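User: Predict the structure for this protein chain, please.
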Amino acid sequence: MRMARYRRYLPWIALFTIYVVWGSTYLAIAIAVKEIPPFFAAFLRFLVAGVVMAGLALVFDPRDRRPSRRDLLDYGLIGMLFLGFGNGLVMWSEQRVPSGIAALVVATVPLWTTLLDGVRPGGVPWTLRGWLGTALGLLGVALVARPGGAGIAAGHLTGILALQLASLSWTFGALYSKSVKRPLPVLTASAIEMLAGSLVLLIESQLVGEDLGLVALASGRAWGALVYLVIFGSLIGFTAFAYCLSVLPAGTVSTYAYVNPVVAVALGAFVLDEEVSMGLLGGAVLILLAVVLTTRRLAVRPAPPPKQQSAPLEDAA
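Assistant: Here is the predicted structure, written as structure tokens:
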């Protein structure tokens, strides 16, 4: 009885973990890419995390549900969308765009998810409450990311465009993961996605001609940020995200994009002594209202049996 009650709250605990952990990754990314080339940094991040996930999958996931060729194609594509393009473009953009602005643009993910999920077969239909929550959330993150009302510098345009492409790639990955007919166990699917994403990131690093000599010159601070991204952003955060996608509506899971800017700006104030303005506080209130409005009374689908539990990921951060 007590275990059943715990499982009822587990999806919301996992969603809260995504709120906090992925909010902090924007700061870690900004620190890492100052010294380590962004695509190669992302490659290292997901290669290490993918190898660890694969090892855990061999130990803990059911042996009678090993991935087929179709599984490798499905989850490999999801990994490319989530990590190869989505996360990779976020890390590339944070060389040009402040972490708060990056969180703001990535907050368009719920808008795209609501729009596209409403037209796909089996998706969650559009509702007035959902659109109102999306509008409030976007207004809130705008206030949080730019509490003083300052505009975005023209030199940031390429970074902003890349972040919007990352948001779309993330959205397509999340929705495609819903169409997978034979879900893999969480650890196995996560490993496939991370390793597939890391391969794409390595190719991107070579295509843009990143100077890999900078890797050996990176400071302990940059490496510490990268280790944080591997452990918390990837292993812990992605596992929680994969679980949430398997038991919660896609629009509910995407509300992390509303809360992440709050966490990012709060960390900026704590670590970098940035000013906490009335605009920031007002934005935080709107974001919390949007989360409540979007998730309230949304039924949690029962989790599938352990042998069929899914592991699709994503991460824009």
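Residues 298-312 have pLDDT under 50 and may be disordered.
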